[in-house]
Structure formats: C-alpha cells, structure tokens
Amino acid sequence: MTNSSTINIRFANSSDVKQIATCHVISWQKIYRGHIPDTVLDSLSIKEREQTWHDLLNNNVKVLVLVRDDYIIGFASICSARDKDTDAQKCGEISAIYLHPDFWHQGLGRKLCLAALSELEMMGFSEVIVWALIGNEQARKFYVSLGFTETDHRKLVAYNKDVILNEVRYQFSFKPLQEISSHIRFEKATLEHQDIIFSWLAEPHMQEFWDNSQEHKDDILNFIHGRKQHYFYGTTQYWLGYIDDQAFCFLLSDQMLKNQDDLSDLHRKYLSKNGHTISLDFGIGNKNFLGKGLAAPTLKSFAEFYKNKIDSLADTFFIDPNTNNPRAFHVYEKAGFEMVGYYYAKQGFFKEEKSCLMVKNFLE
C-alpha cells in the first residue's frame, strides 16, 4: 500500500455488489484452502455471490465496505445476533467479515472490525458475537487480539452435502460508560499541544466533519498563544482529552448568549433559563482510538468535567452534528444528549447546511 492510497470505510449500496462478491470469493479461496476441497473453492461463482449480496442489501442488511482508492478490498456485514440462546435486543453479530488477501497484515482487517464494532455499539448492543472456523487459527487469534473471548459454543455448518464446517463462537462485551469514563481526563489546549492538534486536523476522518477553515485554525493558534480571538464571538476554548495519559481527542466549548444575533430560533428555545448554555464540538483525532467506543463516554465525561471544574452554572450543553453524519446522533444520545430539532447555520464553515441540535441538561 502506497502512502498516497486513500482508505475509508462506508456503508455498501447496490452498486457495490460485484466488488463485494469478488472480494468474498477471493477471500474464501485463500482462507478455506485446506479446509474445503479445492474443487469446491475453484468453482465458486462471483455471479452467484453477487446475487446473494444484492438480495441482502435489498433486505436492508447493513454492510460496511473498506475502500482503497475507490476499490472495495474488504467488507463486514452486521446484524442482531441470530443464535437462539442470545438476546437479539442486547447482542449484535458480525455475520461476515473478509479482507482481500493482498491486503492482509497491514492493520486494515483490524480497522474494519473496529468499525463494525463501533457501528454495533451505536445500534445499542452491549455485546457482539462472531463465528470462526475452528481450523482458522489466524482468524481466532485476530478476534482475541481485539478483545473477543472464546466461548464453549460450537456448531457444524453444512456448506453443501459434502462439506461440513466446524465453527467456534467468540464474544465481545462493550465496557460500561462509567468504567471507561474513569480513565478519561481533559486539559486546556496550550502551546505544547500545537503540533498534535494540527496533525489531527490534517487527518481525513477529522476533515470530513470538522471546520477546516483558515479562520478556525487561526483561532486555535490565537487561543494557545494567549492572543485575542476572532472566531465567532472570540470566546471559544479548546481542549484535549486523554485516556490513560494518551492524547486522543480534540474538543471546543463556547458559551451561548441570548444577545448573539446568529442564534436560530431553535437554539434560543433551549437556552438555559437560569444558568449557562455551553456549545460543544468534538472529534477523536488519534486514529488509533477510532472504533473503540470512546466517543459517548468522552462527551459525557467532558460535560460533567466542565460543570464540576470549569463553570458550576453550566447546566445546558448543545452539540449539533451535521445531518450527513448520522452515526453521531447515536453516539450523542448515548452520552445523554436529546435531539430537539433541525436548523440551518447562519454563518461559519457550515453556513446554510442542515444540522441537528441536540441538548443535554443538568437541571435540578
């Protein structure tokens, strides 16, 4: 993989089925060689798999695809757990996950699996299962490295009348918010953080939803150098989040006031009546911490930190994800924010774009 290659993960659509099917067949032919007769593997049909994935997508099965330079090199399908001994309301499942063999041992399978776990957590599941071929030691070690544990559950799967696959079930449990929150702390951004902040802002996953205007970058520099700020009302504060002493996220906070003329009617409606209203923005900058379920506990912890350590009158918090970022809605809800409506920004980097206002209250 070259340094210029672009890697991203997104949801699959019907136009992806041929590439998914191709990746599926090539992966099977590599993974299951020695476990399934060569005659079966060599006769696998991309066309048949293409129809299978077409039908699954038409039935609203969620499939994440790992894309390298516009070509799908891996995929993962996710759903409620299908085993009868699991609670489908609490337990999710990675029903299939494959990476093209040409891209093994580059950290991409891990990236894909973490994205699948993150999505399942946002869907509200507290645990996840996945089945692996007993003879596939590579896959079994992979799941353990990600925090899955082997269970006592085994099953025989008939691929056809001549091929029986022996599989073992692995299980993953998400840590409770409170347990994660106890490891998170925050620092106000200073000069020593400048390089790490701007390295994060250069990451594609941050640029997708973060204000990357020069005005905003200048404001960050003004803040950490103690100079007069001009971004919006010149009162934005910037913060870094740490977990176990490793910097992993970037946050901003700003107080919302009734006399700010760019506030939407929706914002005005939900301003604190007796205390202070704080607007937040947030992003996990350190990509090593993506897909680990940190977003919700971080936001929850930051709101509590801000109220307890920075401003005791702060009893209302706003956050406003863009409607192009639906995953954020689930994360923010888990952090205690409630969606109250939609609005269009009157100024700034996202001017005239539709966003969702979400509110978290600490009212007595």
Task: Give the key terms.
Aminopeptidase; 7-stranded mixed sheet; 14 strands; 12 helices; alpha+beta; 32% helix; 364 residues
Describe this structure in words.
The structure is a single chain. This protein has two domains: 168 residues, 3-Layer(aba) Sandwich (Aminopeptidase), CATH 3.40.630; 184 residues, Aminopeptidase (3-Layer(aba) Sandwich), CATH 3.40.630.30. The chain starts with 6 loop residues before the first strand and ends with a strand. 32% of the residues lie in helices and 30% in strands. It is elongated, with a radius of gyration of 23 Å. The model has no long low-confidence stretch (mean pLDDT 89). The longest helix is centred in the last third of the chain and has 16 residues.
Count of DSSP helices? 12
Under the CATH scheme, which class of the largest domain?
Alpha Beta
- Based on CA atoms alone, the radius of gyration comes out at 23 Å
The CATH superfamily title of the largest domain: Gcn5-related N-acetyltransferase (GNAT)
Structural class by secondary-structure content: alpha+beta
Strand order of the largest sheet: 1-2-3-4-5-7-6
Fraction in helix: 25-40%
- The helix-strand sequence is EHHHEEEHEHEEHEHHHEEHEHEHEE
How many separate domains? Answer: 2
User: Largest sheet, if any?
Assistant: 7 strands, mixed
- Strand element count: 14
What is the approximate shape? elongated
| CATH topology title of the largest domain | Aminopeptidase
Distance between the termini: 54 Å
Instruction: Report low-confidence residues grouped into runs of 5 or more.
Output: none
Q: What's the mean pLDDT score?
A: 89
CATH architecture of the largest domain: 3-Layer(aba) Sandwich
Fraction of residues in β-strands: 25-35%
